[in-house]
Amino acid sequence: MTLRDYNNIRPKVGKAVYIDESAVIIGDITIADNVSIWPLVAARGDVNYIKIGARTNVQDGSVLHVTRHSENQAQGFPLIIGDDVTVGHKCMLHGCRLGNRILVGMGAIILDGAVVQDDVFIAAGALVPPNKVLESGFLYVGNPVVKKRLLSEAEMSFLKQSAKNYTELKDEYLEQST
């Protein structure tokens, strides 16, 4: 695994975390317990911080980044990801806030200041513009995203199941690496 300091700040990693050796994790990043970071993920907490919640998985080729503090945005935009979040392959999360039990479809992009509340599906290839708020319990699709419909009970259950599936897969990878 590649953990790198930036300005003498080292990423903090919780218990039972799997970080693929090809991933790059730099700077002010806090990773909670039971998280999985898959091949070729780049996470750069250099000009602000990143927090990744428990049982979250960040899949292959995704990019996690932040926005620096400025005159127009005193706090900048950190990247905060909640618990039980599935970030699909090749996603871009930039200075946004994701709640709990979210599925970010493959290739989706979520930009600065966007807020995704709990229990949300974001379709593959979707673009969430800056400062957009996605409300709990809905499916969002398109470029830019639009609220499509309420999630079914089965879809709501799948949000937690997806995170559980990746937690189990992560455990298999950790077992093989010892």
Automatic annotation (TrEMBL):
* InterPro entries reported in the protein's UniProt record: LbH_gamma_CA-like, Transf_Hexapept/Carb_Anhydrase, Trimer_LpxA-like_sf
Alphabetized PANTHER family for the sequence: DYNACTIN SUBUNIT P25, PROTEIN YRDA
Q: Give the protein name, as stated in the record.
A: Gamma carbonic anhydrase family protein
